[in-house]
């Protein structure tokens, strides 16, 4: 398998979770679970842990049911608006009764962002926690050391706050805060700096690439400047022996924004790149083949532009062993309302849409105090229509960008006896 440097910076966006007025679909605590599904509807708890299975989450349960020989410390990472801030890491030093110490790094999970857990057991007296990596595009977090003793059967919550997604934090919106960005005015989520002079390759007139290396860098952005994913490319390398077999490289949500193709002397002469798939709802990008010939010590940047917001249809076949289908797509600044229409055959047990969230990003929040979102649902025997929009504002106050970000949702099959097809049509309304 040909090696391709799919090295990406996580999009520096905090999780903008569906919220609104109390009622069906609302989410008062901004933890990603609607009030009617949230086991702590008024308290931020994106983990939804419920040790004693009494329907009340540990975070708001006076008797959470943690075993007596256990003690849990949970760090909730949140941005300035209370939304989960993905990408946080912490250094945890556990002190034992024998005087020993054990230090490890705990991070949130990109697929379950906003919280990290540290477990203590009998014989572990305490834990000292310090801030490690802050979420991309954010500043703040734990100041100094946070000490927590072993407390039998306890669920201890540490609320960690960050400031994310503002121009003074990350003015080029590439996910790297200004103070750490080696090209603070130029989008370069890779941050590569081959000559280690403090200026990234993307903005360095003499990047210092080795003579035997030639790089082609593709930056994928939508019309708002946001990094994209779910695009695929076939890369064919031609060497002295002729063209090699094409390799397909795809970008996903854990690594959005860029693809690097590296050629190495003396054998590799050129690379032929062809786009095989565009992000859902985002036509554009590379229309024809892109040829990159080996040129010593070069860092060639090509920005591929996509126009997102086109209607998208997802078709999922679910059964009892596969009850979930996860989807995500870009919502552009011009969008004022998103509609999901989920339909299924008559006679199928039924389907639902859960986990609705919009990861807000920087360009959406510049100069704006973002309102919460409201969700309305209309269900029939064979369909479900879900409408997402900013909370009602005064006439003329609905400005572009209030919905811009990444829409995430999961299709769930309910009481499926066999395989059934669900079709979801997502439309962005300007």
CATH class of the largest domain: Mainly Beta
Helix content: under 10%
CATH topology of the largest domain: Immunoglobulin-like
Q: What is the averaged pLDDT score? A: 84
Q: Gap between N and C termini, in Å? A: 43 Å
- Count structural domains: 3
Structural features:
single chain, 430 residues, mainly beta, Immunoglobulin-like, Jelly Rolls, five-stranded antiparallel sheet, 1 helix, 42% strand, globular
Tell me what you see in this structure.
This protein has one helix at 362-365, and strands at residues 16-17, 70-78, 89-96, 101-107, 115-121, 124-131, 138-140, 145-149, 154-164, 213-222, 232-239, 242-243, 247-250, 258-264, 268-277, 290-293, 298-306, 312-318, 324-331, 337-343, 351-360, 373-379, 383-390, 405-413, 420-429. By secondary structure, it is an all-beta fold. The protein folds into 3 domains: 42-164, Immunoglobulin-like; 182-306, Immunoglobulin-like; 312-429, Jelly Rolls (Sandwich). The strands form 6 sheets. Strands 11, 12, 13, 15 and 16 form a 5-stranded antiparallel β-sheet that branches. A 5-stranded antiparallel β-sheet has the order 18-25-20-23-22, with no helix packed on it. Strands 1-21-24-19 form a 4-stranded antiparallel β-sheet. The longest helix has 4 residues, at 362-365.
